[in-house]
Design a protein that fits this description.
There is one protein chain. The protein is an alpha+beta fold. The chain is built from 5 helices and 19 strands. It folds into 2 domains: 3-16 and 18-171, no CATH class; 174-459, Glycosyl hydrolase domain, family 43 (Tachylectin-2, Chain A, 5 Propeller). The chain is 29% helix and 30% strand. The strands form 5 sheets. Strands 1, 16, 17, 18 and 19 form a 5-stranded antiparallel beta sheet that branches. It has a 4-stranded antiparallel beta sheet with strand order 2-3-4-5. Strands 9-10-11-12 form a 4-stranded antiparallel beta sheet, with no helix packed on it.
Amino acid sequence: MTRSDRSVVTLLDDDGHPAPEPTRPTPPSPGGSRRRIVLLAVAVLIVAAVVYDVATISSNHQGESALRKAVARAGRAHTVLAATTAEVATANATVDARDQAGARTADEITSTQQRLKTATQTVGLQSLDVTSLQTCLAGVSSAVSAFAASNPQGAISSITAASSACLAIDGTGGGLVYPFDFPDPFVLTVGSEYFAFATNSVAGNIQIIESSDLTHWTTLGEALPTVAAWAQPGATWAPSVLKQGDNYVLYYSALDGTTGEQCISEAVAAQPQGPYVDSSQTPLVCQLTLGGSIDPSAFVGTDSNAYLTWKSQGATGQPSTIWSQQLTSDGTALAAGSPSELLTPSQGWQGGVVEGPDMVVSGGQYLLFYSANNWQSADYAIGVTDCSGPLGPCAAPSGQPLLASDQSMSGPGGPSVFADTQGNLWLAFDAWLPGKVGFPNSRPLFLRRITITAGAVQVGA
């Protein structure tokens, strides 16, 4: 399934990781464990009741989707708590059995103690999750109510206030920094601030968040209040932003109102957070004979000229393809000439799909980051290949992805490489949480440090 089939974001779209004799630690009180389970069960019931009440009084599909995810988090907390409580009991039983059998070797005792310590700590964390869950759910519920009351600013404030609690539930493993749905991210550094843009979700066409430290993010809301006159509203994807002169140019994908195919447009603003205004009468790029165009990303080459990369969906025997073409000096039109083909799928791990390009210039070398495979699966992954220039040609990609699913996330995609205020390079991407792959689950925002040495890219954990 290509991006044109996406069930866009959980809040809008309707389509759808030796001490010879060690002392045995004192096990936690069985009564305390039972109390934790009871408290969590009560919290889950409260969650279910609130969800039922809000869902009943509101026909807003966005709200129902958000609350379903909150309930899913509650279920996960309950499941993990039950499992870790059982682990404590198992560890205690193991110690008792070994005492009776006289088989208390140093290695066995150390191993059992570690299991007990880990399990006990996890039980404590799950108790914390109950409070975080309640705070997260309250914020999401408040946002739903604000949406229903046509109060988008109130919804934005509620989502921002609940962000830390919701992040505590999901954890920060693997670089998770924003716990809400944030697909196809693009991060722009402006002075000491960072602005991240993403496919339409909580706040309409193009959502935008801001941070001064890459850890705490504030929801700003809507970067693009109105799409182009030729585009259908409610189906905007994969934004990127380029500063040209005194203006910022936002590139995004939208459905052409006449053909129903995806095409690329541009909007302009005087400041990075917008609002961006799209006055175009026709698409910037629209390869109708190739199934439409999507996933625009702009960059500046070593020649100081601006270029745009994008993906054609594929049609009439042509596979999905990544292209590049120079932009005019103001960034609002393509320069004369034809686009250059950069990449088509050629490796098994790509699953016949390449998309989401992001061209990066490092030390004079051009590196093309991209996504590949089915975006709704754990097989989705990020690759990179080197190119001889902004218009290619590009080398054959590696037989292995640069970044694939791991224990903290599944199906990473939508790569965006940017430098922080200290010059360090980061990879922004979206991914599913483990065991929560595909619609209606969210793809939150992840950040990981990367290094590029002599063209070799390393991604941090």
